[in-house]
Amino acid sequence: MTLQADITRAGLGVGRRSTRAWRALPAFAALSDLGVVACAIALATFSRENLFETPGMILDSVLLVGPLMLLGTVAAIAILGGYRPEVFGAGTDEFKRVFNAGLLAAGLTGVGCYLANFPLSRGFFVIAFGVGVPATVTGRWLLRRALHSARRRGVLTQRVLIAGSPSHVDEVAAVIRRESWLGYHVVGALTPATHERSTTHSGLPVFGDCEQVGAIAAEAEVDVVFFAGGAFESAGELRRRVWELESEPVQVVVAPSVTDISSDRVKVRPVGGLPLMHIDPPTWTDASRWGKRTFDVVGAGLLLVLLSPVFAVIALLVKRDDGGPVLFRQTRIGRQGEEFDCLKFRSMVPDAEARLAALHASSKHSGGLFKMKDDPRITGPGRWLRRFSLDELPQLLNVVRGEMSLVGPRPPLRSEVDTYEADTTRRLHVRPGMTGLWQVSGRSDLSWEEAVRLDLYYVDNWSMMQDLSILVKTVRAVTASSGAY
């Protein structure tokens, strides 16, 4: 089969209109910034004219300075790289550049008016930039949310070609497919000449050898070329292939052989022309310090007080349903393998544990976390308790006692821990949590492997900001009832 036939079979013709729209994104962002800054200037003018009892004194100066402020802010964003295509969609770099550009525009406006002895109202200046800078950053955040939503629907994507050894190609492709919000659509692969198969192990079509990257990228009209591990035997060969691509409108990305590392732990420092990637140690030790523990105790204590009426109502409903115990205690494994009694409102029949073996056999369960839809052991009140995760509220007591945290990996059973591989035991480095990345990423809809991956990512890349983000997302996940059964 010819290369052109391979390209057609891979569907490379699909999405070219999307690519053109992607390339127009910087222009759209510039128009958005212009609109936001113009609104801030209009608001500052209105406020100064109507709220400070000096009507008619500001309009003339705004007509002169306003356009300069408007264009100057957008120019500052452009100078600081806020419209470069690579800043859109991921990371905090975009927001930092927009924020710094707003401060630069404010500084230049203030200094310029002072040197020119121009009578610009201080109230107007403070309102225009005090509102305009945060509003511009917020506008970019809203634009990113819209961009992520469009990418998940297959719009505004970029066509990607990955060059490397088959195993490395599949690793990079798996991450790209999983994180669909990145907007990368993998269309094919290039492998070393020694690889003779027409596809990689995951089924990705191979278009040719890595040495042909220049010609194939041009013929396939891809937007991005990823160079993964094993693509070339030397750095000089990689440099020559990059030179081949300089005449094409193609973005070049080198994907190192590391995954699930947060950006906070990665720093790239070029030394003698060699870009060295420095990876900070995992942060799980920070998750065990007094700051997180204080946050857990204070947060859990407040929630226990505020939700005490809810506790009383749930206890009454559970007891009235079948007369069984209100709380369900189950031995779980905590930090460093210590056992503790995990508390829940009982959502199953009293003999649920006795029926578990029969359910394992009927569902052919082989290991890991056992969850099934329409579990016959769930009681009437238990169904809506589980739907909104209200059955887990008593775990606030576990948090106060120091056995759990508000945020962390899911507390495992002893039977699960006994089957852990060496890597999986890293989940036990921190206290288990009432919620975590697994909770806000699909809950029971996740596969066992994906749940473990998310927990290990949390352990290795813990931060307080991530905890706060997970807590906010938990409210949305619980309200939507996604993956809860």
TrEMBL record:
It is a multi-pass membrane protein. Keywords: Membrane, Transferase, Transmembrane, Transmembrane helix. It comes from the Bacteria. It is found in: Membrane. Residues 292-478 form the Bacterial sugar transferase domain. The chain crosses the membrane at residues 21-44, 64-83, 95-117, 123-143, 297-318. InterPro entries: Bact_transf, EPS_sugar_tfrase. The keyword Lipid biosynthesis does not apply. One of its GO terms (molecular function) is transferase activity. Signal peptide: none annotated. Belongs to the bacterial sugar transferase family. PANTHER family: COLANIC BIOSYNTHESIS UDP-GLUCOSE LIPID CARRIER TRANSFERASE, SLL5057 PROTEIN. NCBIfam families: EPS_sugtrans. This is Sugar transferase. It comes from Nocardioides nanhaiensis. The lineage of its organism: Bacteria, Bacillati, Actinomycetota, Actinomycetes, Propionibacteriales.
